[in-house]
Amino acid sequence: MTRQDESNSTLSRRHFLGGAVAGVAAGALDAAPLGAEQAQEAVQEMRTDVVVCGSGIGGLTAAVRAQQAGARVIVLEKAYEAGGTTAHSEGVVWTSESYEQIRETSPHGDPVVQRTIFDNLPRAFDFYDDLGAPLGAARPGRTRSRAIPPVAWVNFMVDEFERGGGTLMVETAMLRVLTNSSYEVIGVLAEGEQGLIRILARSVVLATGGWAGSAQLVTQNITRYYSSLHQRNASFGGRKPSLTGDGFWAATQIGAAPTEGGWDGFYGHGMPARPTKQMQNPLTNYSTYHGNWSVVVNLHGRRFADETQGKQAGTPRGGGEQLINQEVARQPEATATYIWDEPVNARRACAACGLGDIDKFIAFKDIGAPVATANTLEELTAQMEAWGRGIPAAVVQQQLDEYNKAAKNGKAWALPVPKMIEAQATPLAQPPFYAVMVQAGITATYGGLRVNAQGQVLSRTLRPIRGLYAAGVDIGNHSTYVYLGNLCVGAVFGYISGPNAANQPEPRGGWETGPLN
Ligand SMILES: Cc1cc2nc3c(=O)[nH]c(=O)nc-3n(C[C@H](O)[C@H](O)[C@H](O)COP(=O)(O)OP(=O)(O)OC[C@H]3O[C@@H](n4cnc5c(N)ncnc54)[C@H](O)[C@@H]3O)c2cc1C
């Protein structure tokens, strides 16, 4: 795994056009005058070939690819800097080495999306290599896994894009997609520091990173405890949520189809519950990766789910801790306590054995989350009760005794709440014992827009919406429950959607906005 390159830890920030739009338009844009009716609401007007909404891996890949195909491109970025969650990530752009395995792991996912990613990921890597983008070498036998140094990669792509004449407008959010009366996409309405901007374009690529920060969508689909979730994404650090489903809302507003699956699944990891100090990057320091090796109880002190999610994962090794994190999200206050013993501490929760530069227990303690450590389980559960969060020591003790008895006999699978994967169902036997309180972290959502293999967004009658493309996590149903990687969705669909958007013909129905607007 790569670490973010310290020397490249500052992201590109490109201010919104300071003066008149026309002044900056040279090369990239025509400030072609629009009809009076079109200009009615817009403060400013612009015209280009392709508008890309979002500047994570999906948006930047699409933008540079569209530019290479000869298009004039504008990238809109709602946040004050480029990069989105991509810039916070570990940067491993991966999918499985076998399509069959993808289908086995995520049988309810969209086979078109999964197949497209599987087939095209090596081509996307070739594209980055040809461009000279920072990209780690392929490991032997791994054709579908390469690592980007996230911040350096984002900066490289932004520079490349701007060198090619593209315009990145930060603090400028796409508000809606514009269509003409023939139901063709003809641009977007955006809002920046100076107000509304109407940008006419032959095509639009939605790459706004999904809806992890949409209270409405998360509450409807994932958990009623939205406000207790850690935003483990571009909104980290108390920033205003930026991943608010804008691409999804804009597309469905004009008739796009939501995916059939993935709505209650998401990718994320546990993070410290109610820390008293501000967490800093890298996020991996404060992310747990050993929930599946722990015993996990909720605020009532009870186990509530198979920590390995063995049955649901459908793989002998389980689906990793992101599955128990999904279950924690649905517990009261999206909160749980992970309990583990010394062997798990040494092999699964240490600085060197997971992601992050610090032992997990120490990280949680340092940041002020409730933690406990003791040489007996009785002492540990007493400390948990003393956190004052209503966890009854007697209930936890009973749960641990029941679990330990079953695990020692290799029968954790037979518990009322089973733990199915035997290798991870080890008894809590060797002191010291550890407990930390976690709140679920949400990184990326799995439900989203339905697309075809060309990256075109499909309507609710499953026809491509002319001029509308997507890339990245805005595309749904790649993963549904078990995690199949996210950066790959941006790399592949940016790679595909970019040139397709660039080659989109002029709208047959003209540039006048139609009744949907
Ligand atoms: C700690 C961590 C480690 C990770 N490691 C990995 C890993 O190793 N491998 C992996 O596959 N995944 C990893 N991920 C997940 C992955 O980083 C993201 O899911 C992925 O980067 C999403 O890419 P994207 O282009 O779809 O969206 P983003 O990178 O989030 O970009 C979307 C952008 O759109 C902008 N936006 C939103 N709304 C609008 C609007 N209305 N107008 C204009 N702009 C808008 C947002 O501000 C944002 O900048 C990790 C995530 C984290 C937090």
Specify the number of helices: 15
Shape, principal axes of CA atoms: elongated
- How many distinct domains? 2
Main β-sheet, spatial strand arrangement? 6-3-2-10-20-19
User: Which structural class do you get from the secondary structure elements?
Assistant: alpha/beta
Q: Which hetero compounds are present in the coordinates?
A: flavin-adenine dinucleotide
In whole angstroms, how far apart are the ends? 46 Å
**CATH homologous superfamily name of the largest domain?**
FAD/NAD(P)-binding domain
- What portion of the residues fall into strands of 2 or more residues? 15-25%
| Sheet with most strands | 6 strands, mixed
Gyration radius over CA? 24 Å
Q: Can you identify the CATH class of the largest domain?
A: Alpha Beta
Mean of residue pLDDT values: 91
Helix share of residues? 25-40%
CATH topology label of the largest domain: FAD/NAD(P)-binding domain
CATH architecture group name of the largest domain = 3-Layer(bba) Sandwich
Low-pLDDT stretches: 1-8, 15-36
